[in-house]
Every structure is written in structure tokens, then in C-alpha cells.
Write a structure and sequence with these properties.
Length: 327
């Protein structure tokens, strides 16, 4: 029997062992997650299809909600039959399933839940949030895990106590927030002393120049549905060229950046349709966000020093910096 099968559901949403939800106005504890209301100030919060919501429906992350509900299954390991998400999470973080089991984990910006699935399978007590309605895609895929609690919330104003999680994970998110340093700092406030974190961020343009950076000023202003429709037609035409360039020995990775399409040749995806689906999804993910703010290694090092974080590692992984350490 797996850990998830062995867990006993608590009253309301989620399971026992999760840090409690709290009011974002007065920080008082919310006792009923099924109908969140603060006994202190009287504030109440809506619940959409079982997910407490602490942000307005309309926010800057509309495009992310669109893409993840459109591609709910695309990047889940259980759908691809390949451990792509598991390997990215475990290799990047340096964590193991054994040390996550039974520990509290905060996942920031879950999207459709590709990493949520991996975390839940370890037996961790996972609180996962997203600012967009991608939380509903995550719920459709991972809602059967009794060790998962989902909320829709803003990283700058989380309905969660500070210093209450053993692990914090945030992959593929912080470069798309209004203030990247503030996002990093806000997340670390919720990590316990001696807790461990793993966060990644796009590398600064000087370290990872890409043609998409010239196109984004136009595409990020397009309605999500219109941009997606365009990419559905354009990506199948551009991807073969990108694939051919990426195959050039020694310089292929750099040449492929001349074609503004996501190329996952390195993942070894099993068939053309899967590769196209990943490419359309991630090309949209490049071109649609309102914010994209890559960071330099020097900036990241300054963040970690200001917070007096320990055992810090900043490693380059393709176009990302992966930051991990201990609070």
C-alpha cells in the first residue's frame, strides 16, 4: 500500500498535518477550509470547485490558466510514461523521496501539476498553489491524492503561516512575477529554519540570449486564444528547422535559439505528436506571459546573502539557474 492510500482524510479540505490556512487581512486562522471565514475580522473567502480562492478571478496570469487547462496532461509523467518531471525535480533539488515522505512541502506556481504529482507520490504533505485557474487542471489530475491541498493564491499574500513548511519548491515560475526578488523572499518566509528550498529562474539575457526576447513585446499583448491559435499553425512548420539546427555537433543548442520555438529534442520524447504538443505548450509559455524577468547569477547570490541562507548552490541548467539551499 502506498503512503497516499494509507492516509486518512481530515474534515474539510486536505489532510491532517498541513499548516493551517490563515486570513490574508488579519492573519487569523481559518478553521473551516470548506467555507473559509475568519473569526477575528469576519473576512470570508470563496471556494471554487473545492479550492479556496484568495485572489480575484481576473489577474495577470490569465494566459497561464488558459495554457494549463488546455494542456492538463501534456507534461505529467503518468501521461507521458517517462520520468521527465521526476528527474527535473529530484536532480535539481537534490532531494529524495524518502526524505520528503511525511514532511510538509509548499509548491509555488503548480500549473497543471506536473511536479505536484511527483511530490504527492513521495508521501509528502503537499500544499500547492497557483495564482491562475490552472489550479483546476491540477485538481482534475491530482485531486485524488489525499495528501494534497490546493489553493488559488498570490505569492505576495499567501494565506499560510510563516516558517511553517519543511520544504519549498518553485520551478518555472518566479521570472513571470512582477518583482522576482520579492517573490523569492516571500517564498522563503514560509520555510522553517533548517528547511530546504529549490527555486529556478531564467538566466539573464546576456548569459542566454534567445530570439523569443525580441518577439515577446508583441506577443505578450495578444489575447491568449489568438496567440495559441497562431502557434498551433506555426510550430509544426518551425520545429523541424529547429530540430535540424540542434543536431549540428558542438553548436546545435546555440543555433536552435535562432528559431523561436521550444525544442525538446534532449528529452527523447517518444513520438512526433507528443513532441509537437510539448513544443506548442512551451512556445506559448515563452511568448504569452505579461512578465518575463531573467536574472543574473550575481543578483541571485545577493538575494541568498541578504537572507543569510546556507549551503547555497546556484547551478546553470540549460537556460535556467537552479538555486537550492537551507534556511
Amino acid at each position: 500500500m502506498t503512503f497516499a492510500e494509507d492516509m486518512t482524510a481530515d474534515t474539510g479540505a486536505g489532510i491532517s498535518g498541513h499548516p493551517p490556512l490563515c486570513c490574508i487581512r488579519c492573519r487569523g486562522e481559518l478553521h473551516d477550509e470548506a467555507e473559509p471565514r475568519c473569526a477575528g475580522c469576519g473576512a470570508s473567502y470563496p471556494v471554487d470547485d473545492g479550492i479556496p480562492r484568495f485572489v480575484p478571478r481576473d489577474n495577470y496570469a490569465e494566459g497561464f490558466g488558459f495554457q494549463w487547462n488546455r494542456h492538463r496532461l501534456t507534461q505529467l509523467d503518468s501521461h507521458t510514461g517517462m520520468p521527465i518531471s521526476r528527474e527535473r525535480l529530484m536532480t535539481g533539488s537534490g532531494w529524495s523521496g524518502e526524505e520528503l515522505r511525511g514532511r510538509t512541502v509548499l509548491e509555488c506556481g503548480s500549473g497543471a501539476g506536473r511536479f505536484t504529482e511527483v511530490l504527492c507520490e513521495t508521501g509528502a504533505l503537499v500544499t500547492s498553489f497557483d495564482i491562475s485557474d490552472a489550479v483546476h487542471a491540477n485538481a482534475a489530475s491530482n485531486g485524488s491524492f489525499p495528501n494534497l491541498r490546493l489553493i488559488q493564491a498570490n505569492v505576495y499574500d499567501l494565506p499560510l503561516p510563516e516558517e511553517s513548511f519543511d520544504f519549498v519548491l518553485c520551478l518555472g515560475v518566479i521570472q513571470h512575477t512582477p518583482d522576482v526578488e520579492r517573490t523569492f523572499t516571500s517564498l522563503l518566509r514560509h520555510l522553517r529554519p533548517e528547511g530546504r528550498f529549490c527555486v529556478d529562474v531564467y538566466a539573464a539575457m546576456v548569459a542566454y540570449p534567445h530570439l523569443r526576447q525580441l518577439i515577446r513585446p508583441f506577443t505578450r499583448r495578444m489575447p491568449p486564444a489568438r496567440l495559441y491559435s497562431f502557434l498551433e499553425r506555426a510550430v509544426p512548420r518551425m520545429l523541424p528547422l529547429s530540430m535540424a539546427l540542434s543536431a549540428v555537433p558542438g553548436v546545435g543548442q546555440g543555433l536552435a535559439r535562432l528559431v523561436p520555438v521550444a525544442n525538446h529534442r534532449h528529452l527523447g520524447l517518444r513520438d512526433r505528436q507528443t513532441m509537437l504538443s510539448w513544443s506548442v505548450l512551451d512556445t506559448f509559455d515563452w511568448l504569452s506571459p505579461r512578465y518575463e524577468k531573467p536574472q543574473s547569477r550575481r543578483q541571485i547570490r545577493r538575494w541568498t546573502e541578504n537572507l543569510a541562507l546556507r549551503e547555497v548552490s546556484i547551478r546553470r541548467r540549460r537556460g535556467m539557474y537552479v538555486i537550492r539551499g537551507v534556511k
